[in-house]
């Protein structure tokens, strides 16, 4: 039998708390929706207004706005107002990196 006590002790000492892991789990659930993933991918390419996202997704504005709210609530996208129009983009480079790395992973052979 192997002695894993040092490894297990290290893991216990360095593992994130349950709250952090719960937040991480919730974040990945947000990525589990195809519509939200399409929005995130589009915004990884360009800042877009709701009208452009609706046209790209072939969806009505209320459905897209609902998904954008979920993404904003999870700090994945941010918006800036220009007159009556709100332009959305990814919140930061971390979000772009998650999208890019995920895309590269699923398309590699």
Strand content: 5-15%
Helix coverage percent of residues?
55-70%
Give the class from helix and strand content and strand pairing: alpha+beta
State mean pLDDT (0 to 100 scale): 95
Structure description:
The protein is an alpha+beta fold and 109 residues long. Helix content is 65%, strand content 13%. It has 6 helices and 3 strands, in the order αααβααββα. The chain has a 3-stranded antiparallel β-sheet. The protein starts with a helix and ends with a helix.
Task: Provide a brief overview of the structure.
With 109 residues, the chain is of the alpha+beta class. A three-stranded antiparallel sheet has the order 1-3-2. It is built from six helices and three strands, in the order αααβααββα.
Per-chain topology:
Layout: H1 5-14, H2 18-30, H3 34-45, E1 48-49, H4 50-57, H5 61-73, E2 77-82, E3 85-90, H6 93-107
Antiparallel strand pairs: 1-3, 2-3
Keywords:
109 residues, alpha+beta, three-stranded antiparallel β-sheet, 6 helices
């Amino acid at each position: 039998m192997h002695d894993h006590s040092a490894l297990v002790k290290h893991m216990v000492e360095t593992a994130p708390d349950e709250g952090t892991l719960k937040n991480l789990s919730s974040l990945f659930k947000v990525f589990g929706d195809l519509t939200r993933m399409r929005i995130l991918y589009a915004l990884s390419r360009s800042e877009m207004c709701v009208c452009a996202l609706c046209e790209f997704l072939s969806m009505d504005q209320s459905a897209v706005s609902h998904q954008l709210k979920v993404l904003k609530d999870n700090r994945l996208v941010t918006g800036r107002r220009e007159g009556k129009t709100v332009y959305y983009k990814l919140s930061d480079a971390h979000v772009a990196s998650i999208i890019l790395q995920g895309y590269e992973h699923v398309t590699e052979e």
